[in-house]
Design brief:
Blueprint lengths: L1 E2 L29 E4 L11 E8 L10 E4 L3 H6 L3 H6 L3 E9 L5 E10 L5 H8 L4 E3 L1 E3 L2 E3 L1 E10 L4 E2 L2 E2 L9 E4 L3 E3 L3 H6 L3 H6 L3 E9 L5 E10 L5 H8 L4 E2 L2 E2 L3 E2 L4 E8 L16 E3 L3 H7 L2 H5 L4 E10 L5 E10 L5 H8 L4 E2 L13 E9 L1 E2 L1
Antiparallel strand pairs: 1-26, 2-13, 3-10, 4-7, 5-6, 5-10, 8-9, 11-12, 14-17, 15-16, 15-20, 18-19, 21-24, 22-23, 22-25
Helix pairs in contact: 7-9
């Protein structure tokens, strides 16, 4: 008789993104939260800081990446964590990212932050939308490179006790971090909105918007804070696409975040202009099957036959809401025991964020979802 001692689900997506772990593992992004920006702190009480980066790994280029434009004090201050600001704490965070050929910082992950638990890692991730770095060059062409990026945040001074004199965070701009998207533009919508001048010139572009969240979870207004290159219509295209986003207007405890600002990144790449549904890059799971779901989906025929190791792989399209749609089984082993049928039963339990932290559409893209069981005999 077989006993489920540990059902392991392995999630592997195409492109650069991959996730691995059990159904109870932590998700790669934190929960939605609110950070207080410090853009309206004036004089010598304004937060300061700087951002540095260096290529990581082997040198595979002729010319290293370099700044197009360094971040401003306002951009650093706008993402300064509330808790750290109130305590007068400075801090830093280091990210590992891939800098793509189109100057997009892709797949960024926090590898260290000091001090911990004050939000400097999330602040650095949010800041990447406003960073403009020219990619590495090899033989006259841009190439993708892995980089380590460190953001230093310096708190205003002086601080008295646990509070900064003269700094009232209640009057500062609230920024929503890690928004849980209920809806986002699809890949086809972004491709259709690609500016005609940029399309004709074969130009890729990046945009960062500061969008104000309404009580209905949609954006009431957006301001272009970063556009590279200018003059090709990327900012206007991003502002129009922002109307298709929706997120929850509340966070934990039903606290309203209406009126808060979301830093919304967009990456327009010429690869979007190729026909066909692409494979999602850097997808993030927002919901996975429970252990009970996984156990219920294990095929009875395999259990009866004493088979404990099975694997299946689903090829799916991410819907605008993040649900998996149009799934089909592309791998089933062993055959003849309804392994694929069990995997298909799990598909509705998954959710993927329909928009990536890199500013790329995930909705409308393909994802590959392998699911493996390893059951022990009792």
């Amino acid at each position: 008789m077989l006993n489920i001692v540990g059902v392991l689900a392995l999630f592997l997506f195409g492109g650069l993104g991959s996730l691995e772990g059990s159904a109870t593992a932590s998700l790669p992004m934190g929960p939605p939260g609110v950070g207080t920006g410090a853009a309206n702190v004036n004089g010598n009480r304004a937060p300061m800081g700087n951002v540095q980066f260096a290529p990581a790994g082997d040198k595979t280029y002729d010319f290293a990446p370099r700044w197009i434009r360094t971040p401003t004090a306002r951009e650093l201050g706008s993402v300064f964590p509330t808790k750290a600001l109130q305590q007068g704490k400075s801090g830093s965070a280091t990210l590992k990212c891939v800098l793509t050929e189109e100057s997009v910082l892709s797949g960024c992950q926090v590898i260290s932050e000091t001090p911990g638990n004050l939000g400097f890692g999330d602040a650095a991730l949010t800041l990447t939308a406003d960073l403009n770095i020219r990619p590495a060059m090899k033989l006259g062409h841009p190439v993708r490179t892995e980089i380590n990026l460190t953001a230093h945040f310096i708190a205003p001074s002086p601080a008295v006790g646990s509070y900064i004199t003269g700094v009232d965070t209640r009057d500062m701009q609230k920024y929503l971090t890690n928004p849980a998207w209920e809806r986002a533009p699809t890949f086809a919508q972004v491709a259709a909105a690609y500016p005609s001048r940029a399309r004709s010139a074969g130009k890729s572009g990046r945009v960062s918007l500061d969008c104000t969240l309404g009580a209905d979870g949609q954006f009431s207004s957006c301001l272009v804070t970063n556009e590279e290159p200018v003059g090709y219509g990327f900012g206007a295209a991003a502002a129009e696409l922002a109307k298709s986003f929706k997120t929850a207007p509340t966070v934990a405890g039903d606290k309203s975040v209406a009126g808060g600002v979301v830093k919304l990144p967009f990456a327009f790449t010429t690869r979007m202009l190729s026909p066909g549904a692409p494979t999602a890059s850097n997808p993030v799971l927002t919901a996975v099957p429970s252990n009970r779901d996984l156990a219920a989906a294990f095929p009875r025929a395999a259990r009866t036959a004493g088979i404990g190791q099975t694997r299946a792989s689903l090829d799916c399209i991410v819907a605008q809401t993040g649900a998996l749609s149009n799934c089909r089984a592309v791998v089933e082993a062993p055959a003849g025991y309804n392994v694929a049928m069990g995997a298909m039963q799990l598909a509705p339990k998954y959710r993927v964020s329909p928009w990536s932290v890199d500013g790329m559409p995930v909705a409308g893209s393909r994802v590959r979802v392998p699911i493996a069981y390893n059951l022990a005999a009792r």
